[in-house]
Amino acid sequence: MEQLNFIRQLPKVELHLHIEGSLEPEMMFELAKRNQIPLPFQSPEEVRAAYQFSNLQSFLDIYYQGAQVLIHEQDFYDLTWAYLLRCQQDNVIHTEIFFDPQTHTDRGIAFSTVVNGITKALSDAESQLGITSQLIMCFLRHLDEQAAFETLEQALPYKDKIIAVGLDSSEQGHPPEKFQRVFEKARQEGFLTVAHAGEEGSSENIRNAMSLLHVARVDHGVRCVDDPLLVEKLAELQMPLTVCPLSNLKLKVFDTMDQHNICELLEKGLCVTINSDDPAYFGGYMNDNFIAVAQSHSLGSASLAQFSLNAVEASFVDEESKAKMRNRILAHLEHSLS
Ligand code: HPA
Ligand code: ZN
């Protein structure tokens, strides 16, 4: 089977996707009009042209601005539904998505508006598209501990809808230890934990996310290579890393895709996965990320399928669901070889 078709048809699991980062410029314009929010751009093309980032912060500034067009429950539904239709196109069979409640509650949008809009779309996707999902609530790490505690409090009535808490936004200057106590509380309340670490920040942040926040996965984690003992430990523990190749390129974590270390980490036996992060801003959904890695590193089918199998192992679903997904991936691999 030709490689592009192999990738397109490969069943995939996405574990690192910020729903606010799936807001395409066309929808940004549509919602701005619907909600009468002024935009500093004249057209979707002009918005796309502004997506030239020099680092994480330069992206975050424009990303938080974009999210301001989201006001009503229907807006959050439409945003999530549009992403799920992209999942269907890319053969994503299961997705675990992040949302940033503080980006919205700080503008006076109710927590319930955000969660209800997102979860209605997730539920419709399961019944209408056969795509399963989980929801992860992220704390914005540039805000203080108290604000994270208040957000956690707001999430308690939605425990059955939110599987885990995470940590995103500016990594530099906001290390995992700042949120140790709030993560402790979240774990007591029954949430799993994840955290962005070692994207722009140091490998020490990865170590601390594991030892202090007890994360079940590390988001990004690519800076682990600065600490060979940590790399060994990640392999031994099979600690999943949710790597986002096109994001890393756009935010200049790596200069070129050939220099990206994802294949080196795969060869070392780490549980690395491929994800899209903020696809509307970084120029690609799941298939595009797989294709970019495959083409720059001349990867074969077995390695590509391994990324998908790793994501199944790393997902927050029961063993029976994992077995079903694993079998679908293995069937695709076998079919492609025959
Ligand atoms: N890193 C940190 N914060 C984020 C990201 C990211 O890649 N995407 C959205 N918020
Ligand atoms: Zn991210």
TrEMBL record:
CDD domains on file: ADA
Pfam families hit by this protein: A_deaminase
One MF term in the entry's GO annotations: adenine deaminase activity
Keywords annotated in UniProt: Hydrolase, Metal-binding, Nucleotide metabolism, Zinc
Listed InterPro entries: A_deaminase_dom, ADE, Ado/ade_deaminase, Metal_Hydrolase
Site (Important for catalytic activity): H220
Residues the record marks as active site: E199 (proton donor)
Entry EC number(s): 3.5.4.2
Function: Catalyzes the hydrolytic deamination of adenine to hypoxanthine. Plays an important role in the purine salvage pathway and in nitrogen catabolism.
UniProt xrefs under NCBIfam families: aden_deam, PRK09358.1-6
UniProt protein name: Adenine deaminase
